[in-house]
Write a structure and sequence with these properties.
The protein is of the alpha+beta class.
Length: about 750
C-alpha cells in the first residue's frame, strides 16, 4: 500500500512540475494526437490545453505534412531545433529535447517533447517586442485618457500626458508615488480590492468612481484596469485607463433635470408629447391631454392608432400622411367626443429619410366650447338688437291697426253687419302681436319683474285658447296641490302656447295633447336642475316625432323640422325657462310622438288677491299724449276722446314739455322711444322738475325694455304696451284719475287739481 501511495504521489508531483515549468512540455501519441500540454506550451505557442488535448495538433504548430511526427525510430534522447508556428502565425525557432515513451512491455507508444525559444527566436521576439512597445508608447502618449502603469503594491510606474491633463500632476511628480494620492480617503478600500484581483490575474470590469486632482478638486472618472504580464506570463503590475467624465455626467444630470422639469410641465398642462412610426404605432406618449378623453398613455404606446375604429383613426391617418410627406402643420382632430389640436413635425432617420412623426397634442375641447359659446352669445346679442327693432316697428303698425279697428267696432255698434268682420280682424291683429313677443324674446334687456303665478290656471287658459277651432283637443291634468311659481306670466304663457301649437302641428290628422303638471323634489342626481322643489310640466303628443339627429339641434335658433316653421318657438321657450331658473328637454321618436318637459322652481308665496269688480266711469280728465308716429297719435286721440277724456297730442318730448308749461294735465302718456327727439324717460325727468306730482304712463313697442319691465322703478305709475285697444287704455287710466296714481301719494281730482 505504501508503494502505491508513493507511485501516486510521484505522478502527482510530475504533473505539478509540468504545469509550473516555464518550458513547453508536450506528449505526442504515435498518430500525432496531443496527450499532455502544460502552461509553458500555452505561453510558447498561444494555444490553450483545452484546444489541443486529444487532437492532432501538428498542422496547428506548422509541422509539414511530409515530415513524420513524432519520429517512430527514436530510441533515446534527441536534441533538435525545430521550425514551429505560433497561434497568431508568427514563425518560431524552438530548441526541443525529445524522449521516447514506452508502455509496460517496452513498446514505443509516443514521444515526450520539452521545448524552449531558440536564441534567434528570442532576438526576433525582443525586436518585435521593442517595436510593439514603441508603437504602444506612441499611442499611450497621444491618448486624451489617463493611462497609468502601477506595480502590484500600487506604486505608479508610468504616467502619460493624458494622466497629466486629467489629474494635474506631471510625470516627474507622479512616478514613484502611491496611486492612493489620486483616491479620496473614503475610497481606499477600492484600491485594495483592485490589487487583489490583479494579483489573481483577473481583469477588473470598467466602473465609475471619484478621484482627486492635484488642485484638490474631485472629478468623476470611468476606470478600466487590466493585469500586465512579463514574457513568462507572470502578472507583474496593472494598467489603468481613466477617463474624466465629470462634464459628461454633469451634462447628463442637467439634461435629466431639464427632462424632469419638462415632464412636470407637460404633466401639469393639458398637453401631451407624442411620437409614432410610419405605421402609426405610438412610440412615445407623455402628458395627460388624452386622459380626459378616456385614453391612457400606457395603453396607447405600442399600438397603432390607424387600427382604432371610427373617424378619429381616419383623421389621424390623413394627418400622419401629411407629416410623412415632410409637412409641418397644425390640425384639429375629433377624439372620443372631444377635440384635440395636434402640431405635427416629421421625424428624420439616420440617413435623412422621414421615418415617422412627432408633435404636441392639446385638448381644446373646453376652449372650443367657450369660443362657440362666445360666438353664440354674440349672435344672440345681434339677433336681439335686430329682433327688438323689428318688434318695435311692428307693434307701432299694429297699434294703428288695432286702434282703428276698435274705434270702428265701437262706432258701428253691435247691430252692424260689419261687426263680425271687425272683431275677427282685431283678433288677427292681436294674434300677430304674439309674433312680436317671440321676437322680443331675443331682445336684450333686463328681466321683467316676476310675480307669483298660478301655473295650473295658466295652462288651462293657454291650451284652450291655442287649440280653439282646431281638430286637436287638450287633456290637462294638474295636481290639486300644485305649487306656485314665480315668473313673468306673459312669458310663461308664451312657452305653453309654443309647445301646444307645436304639438298640434305634429298631428295634422287630429288627436289630443296631454299636458301634465305635478310637484317633484329632485335630489340632484336626475338629468334636471339642481336639487330642490320644482313644478314639472310635460306636453305630450302622438304625432310624427323628431329624428334622433335633429333632437340635439331642436333649441337652435332658426332650426325647424316644419316646412313653414320660423325656428324661433322652442329657442324662445328654452331661453325663457332658463331665465326663470328652470330647464327644458325634449324626448322624441319618429312615428311615436314627442314629449317636451320643463321644470320651474317652486315659489312658496300665495297669489295676491286681485281687485274685485271694475272701475266706475271716472269724471272727465285732461290727458297729454306723446308719440312720434302720426297714425298712432291720431287713433289714440280718437280712442281717448271716445272714452270721454280731454286729449292733447304731441310728436316728441320737447312739444310735450311746452304744452305742460301752458297748463297742467291729470295724466301724461309718453312713448318711450322717439326718433330724433326727446324720449319718454328724459321727458318725464323734465316734467317732474316742472311738477313733482306729475302722473305718467309709459307706452312702447319694446315690451321687454327695462323701463317697460319695471316701470315703477323709473317713475311711471302704469304702462300700456303697444298695440292697445280702447279697453286696455281705459283699464290703465281709470284707476289713476280716481286718485290711485298720484306720485306723491296725495289725491288728484279728475277735474285737474293742482292746476296753476
Amino acid at each position: 500500500m505504501a508503494i502505491q501511495q508513493q507511485e501516486a504521489w510521484r505522478h502527482r508531483a510530475w504533473a505539478v512540475l509540468g504545469q509550473v515549468s516555464a518550458e513547453a512540455m508536450i506528449a505526442w501519441a504515435h498518430d500525432g494526437r496531443v496527450l499532455v500540454w502544460n502552461d509553458g506550451a500555452t505561453r510558447l505557442y498561444g494555444f490553450e490545453a483545452r484546444q489541443v488535448l486529444g487532437r492532432d495538433a501538428r498542422s496547428w504548430l506548422g509541422i509539414p505534412d511530409h515530415t513524420r511526427w513524432p519520429p517512430a525510430d527514436l530510441h533515446g534522447r534527441l536534441a533538435l531545433e525545430l521550425e514551429r508556428r505560433h497561434k497568431d502565425g508568427t514563425p518560431l525557432a524552438v530548441l526541443a529535447d525529445l524522449h521516447p515513451i514506452e508502455d509496460e512491455h517496452g513498446q514505443f507508444i509516443g514521444v515526450a517533447e520539452v521545448g524552449r525559444f531558440a536564441p534567434r527566436t528570442l532576438s526576433m521576439a525582443r525586436a518585435q517586442q521593442q517595436a510593439s512597445r514603441l508603437h504602444l508608447a506612441a499611442i499611450v502618449e497621444s491618448s486624451e485618457d489617463a493611462i497609468i502603469g502601477k506595480s502590484l503594491n500600487g506604486v505608479i510606474r508610468s504616467w502619460n500626458h493624458g494622466a497629466e491633463r486629467v489629474f494635474g500632476y506631471s510625470a516627474e511628480e507622479a512616478i514613484g508615488q502611491s496611486v492612493t494620492m489620486l483616491i479620496p480617503p473614503d475610497r481606499y478600500g477600492e484600491e485594495d480590492r483592485i490589487l487583489a484581483a490583479i494579483r489573481a490575474g483577473e481583469r477588473v470590469p470598467s466602473y465609475e468612481t471619484m478621484r482627486v486632482r492635484k488642485d484638490g478638486r474631485f472629478i468623476q472618472v470611468s476606470v478600466t484596469i487590466s493585469p500586465v504580464y512579463d514574457l513568462l506570463g507572470r502578472v507583474v503590475g496593472a494598467s489603468k485607463i481613466a477617463r474624466d467624465i465629470t462634464a459628461q455626467r454633469s451634462a447628463e444630470r442637467a439634461l435629466a433635470d431639464a427632462e424632469e422639469r419638462l415632464c412636470a410641465v407637460v404633466d401639469a398642462a393639458p398637453v401631451a408629447l407624442f411620437a409614432c412610426d410610419a405605421q402609426g404605432h405610438m412610440t412615445l406618449l407623455k402628458g395627460h391631454a388624452l386622459e380626459g378623453l378616456g385614453f391612457k398613455g400606457d395603453w396607447l404606446v405600442g399600438r397603432s392608432l390607424l387600427a382604432l375604429r371610427g373617424g378619429a383613426a381616419e383623421g389621424f391617418a390623413t394627418q400622419l400622411a401629411r407629416a410623412l410627406r415632410g409637412e409641418r402643420f397644425t390640425a384639429v382632430l375629433g377624439v372620443a367626443g372631444g377635440l384635440v389640436e395636434i402640431r405635427w413635425l416629421p421625424v428624420l432617420g439616420a440617413e435623412g429619410a422621414i421615418t415617422g412623426a412627432c408633435g404636441v397634442v392639446i385638448d381644446v375641447t373646453e376652449q372650443r366650447r367657450a369660443h362657440e359659446e362666445v360666438a353664440r352669445t354674440s349672435k344672440w346679442e345681434l339677433l336681439g338688437t335686430l329682433a327688438g327693432g323689428i318688434a318695435h316697428d311692428f307693434n307701432n303698425v299694429l297699434a294703428a291697426i288695432v286702434g282703428n279697428l276698435a274705434l270702428a267696432r265701437m262706432k258701428l255698434g253691435p247691430a252692424s253687419e260689419a261687426m263680425g268682420f271687425l272683431v275677427e280682424s282685431e283678433k288677427a291683429a292681436m294674434r300677430a302681436q304674439g309674433l312680436t313677443r317671440q321676437l322680443l324674446g331675443f331682445a336684450k334687456g333686463e328681466r321683467a319683474p316676476r310675480r307669483v303665478v298660478d301655473l295650473g290656471a295658466l295652462i288651462e287658459s293657454t291650451a284652450r285658447f291655442a287649440l280653439g277651432g282646431s281638430n286637436v283637443r287638450a287633456q290637462v291634468l294638474v295636481a290639486r296641490d300644485l305649487w306656485k311659481v314665480r315668473g313673468d306670466e306673459g312669458q310663461l304663457s308664451q312657452v305653453l302656447n309654443n309647445l301646444v301649437i307645436n304639438a298640434q302641428q305634429a298631428m295634422p290628422a287630429g288627436g289630443s295633447v296631454e299636458i301634465l303638471a305635478r310637484n317633484v323634489s329632485l335630489g340632484g342626481h336626475e338629468a334636471a336642475p339642481a336639487a330642490g322643489d320644482y313644478v314639472c310640466v310635460d306636453c305630450v303628443d302622438r304625432g310624427v316625432g323628431i329624428d334622433k339627429r335633429d333632437v340635439t339641434r331642436i333649441f337652435d335658433a332658426f332650426f325647424t323640422t316644419k316646412a313653414q316653421g320660423s325656428g324661433l318657438g322652442l329657442t324662445t321657450s328654452a331661453r325663457i325657462i332658463n331665465e326663470h331658473g328652470g330647464r327644458i328637454e325634449v324626448q322624441s321618436r319618429p312615428g311615436e310622438g314627442t314629449r317636451v318637459r320643463f321644470y320651474l322652481p317652486r315659489q312658496g308665496e300665495e297669489v295676491p288677491a286681485s281687485r274685485a269688480g271694475g272701475f266706475a266711469r271716472p269724471p272727465r280728465a285732461r290727458i297729454l299724449f306723446m308719440d312720434d308716429e302720426e297714425p298712432i297719435r291720431k287713433v289714440t286721440q280718437a280712442m281717448l276722446t271716445h272714452l270721454g277724456y280731454e286729449v292733447c297730442v304731441t310728436a316728441d318730448g320737447a312739444a310735450a314739455l311746452s304744452e305742460y308749461r301752458k297748463k297742467r294735465y291729470d295724466i301724461v302718456i309718453l312713448d318711450l322711444t322717439v326718433r330724433d327727439g326727446l324720449g319718454g324717460l328724459a321727458t318725464l325727468e323734465r316734467l317732474r322738475a316742472l311738477d313733482p306730482g306729475v302722473v305718467a304712463i309709459v307706452s312702447s313697442g319694446y315690451s321687454s325694455d327695462p323701463v317697460m319691465a319695471d316701470h315703477e322703478r323709473y317713475g311711471f305709475v302704469a304702462k300700456v304696451p303697444k298695440p292697445y285697444t280702447p279697453e286696455t287704455l281705459d283699464a290703465a287710466i281709470a284707476p289713476l284719475v280716481r286718485g290711485a296714481g298720484r306720485a306723491d301719494g296725495g289725491p288728484r281730482s279728475a277735474a285737474g287739481a293742482h292746476r296753476d
